[in-house]
């Protein structure tokens, strides 16, 4: 599990809930009366997406996509691979890409451009956490829960070699390698 000598709590469950509720309120206002397809980026965004979806009052469909640019490393390789694609016809629909954290933006830019090319009514990005200081490509993020410093985070969907996703709080690594 989590070695508390190396990790410190960054966001507790109550702080996360407040951020998710605020994002849901914005989305509910912006998409009132519209049908939306939530595109959940697996695996990390699943916890965030489930919490956000429960707060949405709009009509939604949920699709999942799994991309890889990290593998088991702590930094992105820069190459994006599709491991699981969506199956819904998204032409003419409003899409919200749900991501738990954005670092370089490469993976999200790849997905955004790919979805945009399929003819949806709109495509917007929703993220819980945004590391703008790590951005290497421009990606249009409309809904940001929190802008954060460059820290390695785990918990609430964020992983360390596929572990710690189930933690209800977010922790940061005190002593990065």
Describe the 3D structure.
There is one protein chain. The chain has 177 residues and is α/β, with parallel strands linked by helices. The protein has a single domain, classed as Rossmann fold (3-Layer(aba) Sandwich), CATH 3.40.50.2020. It contains three helices and nine strands, in the order E-H-E-H-E-E-E-H-E-E-E-E. The chain is globular, with a radius of gyration of 16 Å.
Indicate the topology.
Blueprint: E1 7-11, H1 13-30, E2 35-42, H2 46-55, E3 59-68, E4 81-84, E5 94-102, H3 106-116, E6 122-130, E7 141-147, E8 153-154, E9 170-173
Parallel strand pairs: 2-3, 2-5, 5-6, 6-7
Antiparallel strand pairs: 1-9, 3-4, 8-9
Number of domains: 1
* CATH T-level topology: Rossmann fold
Q: Tell me the structural class.
A: alpha/beta
CATH architecture: 3-Layer(aba) Sandwich
Amount of beta strand: 25-35%
- Overall geometry: globular
What is the rounded distance between the termini? 18 Å
Radius of gyration using CA atoms only: 16 Å
Largest sheet: 6 strands, mixed
Overall mean confidence score, pLDDT? 91
């Amino acid at each position: 599990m989590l070695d508390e000598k190396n990790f410190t709590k960054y966001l507790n469950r109550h702080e996360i809930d407040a951020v998710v509720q605020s994002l849901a309120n914005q989305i509910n206002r912006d998409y009132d009366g519209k049908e939306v397809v939530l595109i959940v980026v697996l695996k990390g965004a699943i916890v965030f997406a489930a919490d956000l979806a429960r707060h949405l009052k709009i009509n939604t469909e949920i699709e999942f996509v799994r991309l890889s640019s990290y593998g088991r490393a702590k930094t992105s390789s820069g190459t994006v691979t599709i491991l699981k694609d969506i199956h819904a016809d998204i032409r003419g629909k409003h899409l919200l890409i749900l991501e738990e954290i954005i670092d370089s933006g490469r993976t999200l830019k790849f997905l955004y451009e790919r979805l945009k090319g399929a003819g949806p009514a709109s495509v917007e990005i929703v993220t819980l956490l945004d590391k703008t200081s790590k951005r290497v490509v421009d990606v249009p993020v409309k809904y940001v829960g929190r802008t954060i410093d460059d820290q390695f985070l785990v918990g609430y969907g964020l992983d360390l070699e596929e572990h710690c996703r189930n933690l209800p709080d977010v922790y940061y690594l005190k002593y990065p390698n």
